[in-house]
Amino acid sequence: MKQYDVVFLGSGHAAWHAALTLKQSGKQVAIVEKDTIAGTCTNYGCNAKILLEGPYEVLEEAKQYPNIIDSHNLEVNWKNLMRYKEKVINPMSETLTSMFEQQEIDVIMGKG
């Protein structure tokens, strides 16, 4: 059985940053992930929310300039926004998985 100095539960921002730092300092590191690599914040929460919220914030800002910007005709194309979100967010899991492999950080899919 392989021995680890540190095992992280989840592969979110805090875990992968710490795992990389510890691995580079010579520690044996593993990450246990029950869902998609990169964690909840990246895949479903914070990052995705910020990305989806951006265009709506622009619409609200446009309303601050009623005689300059015709905000009545502005709208968000939800289908295209979701495509954009997938284009930006989806590769993050693959990128992190590749980084873990290159750094020899073991990823164990399951619950810890």
From TrEMBL:
InterPro entries: Class-I_Pyr_Nuc-Dis_Oxidored, FAD/NAD-bd_sf, FAD/NAD-binding_dom. Residues 4-111 form the FAD/NAD(P)-binding domain. Belongs to the class-I pyridine nucleotide-disulfide oxidoreductase family. PANTHER family: DIHYDROLIPOYL DEHYDROGENASE, MITOCHONDRIAL, DISULFIDE OXIDOREDUCTASE. This is FAD-dependent oxidoreductase. It comes from Staphylococcus chromogenes (Staphylococcus hyicus subsp. chromogenes).
